[in-house]
Design brief:
- With about 120 residues, this protein is an alpha+beta fold.
- The chain is about 40% helix and about 15% strand.
- It is built from four helices and four strands; from the N terminus they run E-E-E-E-H-H-H-H.
- It has helices spanning about 35-55, 75-85, 95-100, 100-110; strands at about 5, 10, 15-20, 30-35.
- The strands form two sheets. Strands 1-2 form a two-stranded antiparallel ribbon. Strands 3-4 form a two-stranded antiparallel sheet.
- The two termini are about 15 Å apart.
- The mean pLDDT is about 80.
């Protein structure tokens, strides 16, 4: 990855700090804390892509979306459940660790002009 930030040219991503978070079952969860330069680039990309991609999300989707509150999600889910006879619940464990990068980039290109 190569990007320019404040006149600095970076040829590879800065290292991510790894921290272990204890779990209730005695195990640990790995948490990655990005370096400041990497976090700034992530924010810039988010600001560029979010306005266009936001249009394609379902109104009842609450995951990490601007203007959506986790506190309002249960009420929306309850409202939707009253309209249908069944419920589908999904817990996609490790989704972001296992997403196919080439498919993700294809979707980004399809819905934006960003390269």
């Amino acid at each position: 990855m190569r990007y320019e930030l404040c006149g600095m040219v970076c040829c590879k991503r800065p290292p991510v700090k790894r921290v272990e978070i204890p779990k209730a079952n005695g195990g640990v969860r790995q948490l990655g804390i990005p370096a400041l330069a990497d976090r700034i680039v992530q924010t810039l990309v988010k600001q560029a892509l979010e306005p266009e991609l936001e249009k394609h999300f379902h109104p009842a989707s609450y995951g990490y979306r601007p203007g959506k509150s986790a506190r309002k999600a249960p009420a929306t889910a309850r409202e939707i459940c009253w309209r249908y006879d069944g419920v589908v619940e999904l817990d996609i464990k490790g989704y972001f660790e296992n997403i196919a990068h080439n498919l993700l980039m294809r979707v980004v290109r399809r819905h934006t002009q960003e390269k």
